[in-house]
Amino acid sequence: MSKWLMSGLIAAACLFGVYLLVAALPEKEEAADRSPDFVVPERAVDADASMQIYQSLCISCHGDRLQGAVGPELAHVGSAMTKEQLYKTIKEGRRGMPAFEKRLTEDELATIATWLAAQQ
C-alpha cells in the first residue's frame, strides 16, 4: 500500500512540476519584441581609444587581430551582435568572460562597444 501511495505522490509532484514549467514560460514572440533596456548613445567610432582599451584588457583572450584565442573571434562580431548587446556583454561578462563594469567607465564601455559593432 505504501508503494502505491509513494508512487502516486511522486507522479503528482512530477505533473505539478511540468505544469509550472509550461505555465511560467513566456511566449517567444514577447521576448523577441522587447526593446533593449538601454541604448548606447550614438557616437563616432574612436579607433585609437578603442584599440588602447582592447590592447590593455582584451588582447590576451581575443587575439592581437581580433582573431580569437581563448575567447571567440571578434573580427565580424558587429554582424552578429548589436551595440547594446556588446555593451552589456562587456559590462556584465558572460560564459567565462569576466565583467568589466568596475574596470571601465560608462564612456569607455560605449567606446569599445561602438567600435566592436563596426567590425563587420
Describe what you observe in this structure.
- It is built from 6 helices and no strands.
- With 120 residues, it is mainly α.
- It folds into 2 domains: 27 residues; 71 residues, Cytochrome Bc1 Complex, Chain D, domain 2.
- Helix 3 packs across helix 6 and helix 5 packs across helix 6.
Name its key features.
mainly alpha, 6 helices, about 55% helix, Cytochrome Bc1 Complex, Chain D, domain 2, heme, about 120 residues, 2 domains, elongated
Low-confidence stretches: none
Give me the number of helical elements. Answer: 6
The profile of the biggest β sheet is: none
Instruction: Kindly state the number of beta strands.
Output: 0
CATH C-level class of the largest domain is Mainly Alpha
Shape: elongated
Organism: Cohnella cellulosilytica
InterPro entries: Cyt_c-like_dom (IPR009056), Cyt_c-like_dom_sf (IPR036909), Cytochrome_c550/c551-like (IPR051811)
Keywords: Electron transport, Heme, Iron, Metal-binding, Transport
Domain Cytochrome c: 45-120
Chain-wise SSE layout:
Blueprint: H1 2-24, H2 28-33, H3 47-57, H4 59-62, H5 83-92, H6 106-117
Helix pairs in contact: 3-6, 5-6
Short description:
With 120 residues, the chain is mainly α. Helix content is 55%, strand content 0%.
